[in-house]
Amino acid sequence: TPGNLRCAEFEVRAILSGPWVVDTSEAAQVEALSQYIRAKWNRTQTIEEVSGDHGRRLPALVLEHWESGTADIEPLVKAPTLRVRQAPILNGDETSGCMEQLACYCGMSSCERSGSFKEGALQ
């Protein structure tokens, strides 16, 4: 996001949802988020877990298709908070104390299921 383009260091806090998160280890969650971070912020130099801030299960999310009334229950996981350090920008005009909050769906589209819903691929 534009706000973090000028940050030398920032934290990423993510909520993960979808079938993938249920049986996925914390290490795999960190790896997936790290790949996303490196793709989104190309100045990324290092990514590390914030000490003492581990992932945890959250109460499930109930989604309802408003036309059909079909409901779906999605698991939610708070991923470990990650600290990202970026390469300096040329003019040195950087900010500090930045934070990015993400909500990621991992797996097939939760909004489109059987009946009036259709399955889609993760993109």
Topology:
Blueprint: E1 9-17, H1 26-40, E2 44-49, E3 56-64, E4 71-78, E5 82-86, E6 98-105
Outline the structure in words.
- The structure is a single chain.
- This protein is 12% helix and 37% strand.
- It has 123 residues and is mainly beta.
- Strands 1, 2, 3, 4, 5 and 6 form a six-stranded mixed beta sheet that branches.
- The longest helix is centred in the first third of the chain and has 15 residues, at 26-40.
Sum up the structure in keywords.
elongated, mainly beta, 123 residues, 37% strand
Helix content: 10-25%
- Please report the total strand number as a whole number: 6
- Average pLDDT reading: 79
Element pattern in H and E: EHEEEEE
Main beta-sheet strand count, sense and barrel state: 6 strands, mixed
Q: So how many helices? A: 1
Structural class category: mainly beta
The share of residues in extended strands comes to 35-45%
The Rg value, from CA coordinates, equals 17 Å
Low-confidence stretches: 112-123
Cα(first) to Cα(last) distance is 19 Å
Estimate the global geometry from the Cα principal axes: elongated
